[in-house]
Backbone:
C-alpha cells in the first residue's frame, strides 16, 4: 500500500485527491493519509479551478490535516509525498522531501529554471528515491492515443500538427502567486508547458524552435511556439482569457492518410473522403493516469520510463529557449540538447 501525504491542498490538489479516493475505492494499493495547507479554509471547501472535477467524493477515508508540512512528514512517515504547491515552492520542498527519504510527485512546472531541475534530478539520485513531475497531459488518454498513432504510424507519417490550450485567467488561489511570480506564472509556463512536454514525449527534441509572446494581462497572456523537426513543424498555442470562458485544449495532427483531432474531450479521425469517425478512448484524465502509473512504479519497483525527471528537466530547458526566442523577437534558435 502506497501511503500518500499531500502538501498544498488548493486548486489542482483536489483533482489529485479525487484520484486517490477513486483508486482506493476500486482497490489500487494507494491511500491518502494526510494533507497540509497553510490556509485552514482549504480543508472546509473544495477549491474550484478551470477544469471541473470528475465527480463528487463520497465516504472518503479520513486523513489528518496539517498546517506545517515538516511536522506532517515527521509524524506520518508516508511512502509518497505529493506536492501541489505554487511553483516557486517546488524546488525547495521537493529537495527537502527527498532528503527526508520520501518518494516525491510534484506538480508541473518542475521548477523555475533548468539549473534548478538538474539539482532536483541529482537530489533524487543521491537519495535513491523516485521523483516524478506531474506532467499529466502525457497520461491523458486522448494524447496517449496520439502517441500510439505516431509511433505505430496508424495513419501514415505526420505532415503537420497543432496543439492548443486556452483557459480563463486563474481566479482561485489565495496568494495570487501567479501574478507575483513573473514568468513562472505566465501562460507559457502554466499552459504551453503541458503541450511542450507532450510534444517532446511524442516527437522527441526539436532541431530548432521559436516563440512569440504577447503581454496584456499576466506577464504573457498569449504564447505561440514552433517546434521544428526535420520532417514537420509543430505549432503550440496557449492563452489566458480574462473572461467567464470555458477551458479548452486539443490537437489537430495531419497524417498522410487524414486528420486526427482532439476537441471537446473527444478524438476524431477524418479521412481524405471526408469520413469522420470517433475514436474511443478511456474515460479518465491525465492526473488519474499519472497517479496510477506512479503508484505502479512504486509498488512494483519498476523504472519510470515514461517521464523520468531528467526528461521533464528538458521540458524546462525548452521553456527557457522559448523565452530566449521571444526576447529576441521570435528568433529561430538552434536546439542544443541539455544546453
Ligand atoms: N496539472 C495541471 O493541469 C495543473 C493545473 C493547475 C495548476 N497546476 C500547478 O499546480 C501548482 C499549484 O497550483 P494551484 O492552481 O493548485 O494553486 P493554488 O494556489 O490553488 O494552491 C496552492 C495551495 O498551496 C498552499 N500553500 C502555499 N504555501 C504553502 C506552504 N508553505 N505549506 C502548505 N501549503 C501551502 C496555498 O494555501 C494553496 O491552497 C502550480 O505549480 C501549478 O502550475 C497544475
Residues:
Amino acid at each position: 500500500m502506497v501511503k500518500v501525504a499531500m502538501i498544498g491542498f488548493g486548486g489542482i490538489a483536489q483533482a489529485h485527491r479525487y484520484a486517490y479516493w477513486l483508486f482506493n475505492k476500486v482497490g489500487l494499493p494507494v491511500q491518502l493519509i494526510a494533507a497540509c495547507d497553510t490556509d485552514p479554509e482549504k480543508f472546509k471547501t473544495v477549491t474550484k479551478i478551470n477544469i471541473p472535477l470528475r465527480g463528487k467524493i463520497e465516504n472518503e477515508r479520513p486523513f489528518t490535516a496539517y498546517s506545517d508540512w515538516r511536522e506532517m512528514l515527521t509524524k506520518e512517515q508516508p511512502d509518497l509525498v505529493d506536492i501541489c504547491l505554487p511553483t516557486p515552492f517546488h524546488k525547495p520542498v521537493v529537495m527537502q522531501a527527498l532528503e527526508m527519504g520520501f518518494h516525491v510527485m510534484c506538480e508541473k512546472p518542475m521548477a523555475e529554471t533548468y539549473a534548478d531541475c538538474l539539482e532536483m534530478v541529482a537530489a533524487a539520485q543521491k537519495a535513491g528515491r523516485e521523483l516524478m513531475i506531474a506532467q499529466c497531459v502525457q497520461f491523458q488518454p486522448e494524447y496517449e492515443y496520439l502517441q500510439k498513432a505516431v509511433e505505430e504510424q496508424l495513419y501514415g507519417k505526420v505532415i503537420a500538427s497543432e496543439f492548443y490550450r486556452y483557459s480563463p485567467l486563474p481566479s482561485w488561489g489565495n496568494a495570487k502567486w501567479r501574478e507575483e511570480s513573473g514568468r513562472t506564472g505566465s501562460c507559457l509556463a502554466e499552459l504551453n508547458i503541458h503541450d511542450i512536454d507532450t510534444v517532446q514525449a511524442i516527437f522527441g527534441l526539436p532541431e530548432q524552435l521559436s516563440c512569440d509572446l504577447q503581454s496584456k494581462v499576466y506577464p504573457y497572456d498569449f504564447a505561440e511556439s514552433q517546434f521544428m523537426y526535420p520532417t514537420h513543424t509543430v505549432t503550440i498555442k496557449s492563452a489566458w482569457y480574462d473572461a467567464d470562458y470555458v477551458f479548452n485544449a486539443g490537437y489537430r495532427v495531419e497524417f498522410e492518410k487524414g486528420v486526427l483531432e482532439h476537441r471537446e474531450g473527444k478524438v476524431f479521425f477524418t479521412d481524405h473522403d471526408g469520413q469522420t469517425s470517433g475514436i474511443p478512448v478511456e474515460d479518465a484524465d491525465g492526473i488519474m493516469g499519472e497517479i496510477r502509473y506512479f503508484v505502479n512504479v512504486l509498488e512494483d519497483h519498476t523504472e519510470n520510463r515514461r517521464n523520468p525527471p531528467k526528461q521533464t528537466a528538458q521540458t524546462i530547458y525548452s521553456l527557457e529557449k522559448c523565452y530566449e526566442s521571444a526576447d529576441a523577437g521570435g528568433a529561430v534558435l538552434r536546439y542544443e540538447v541539455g544546453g
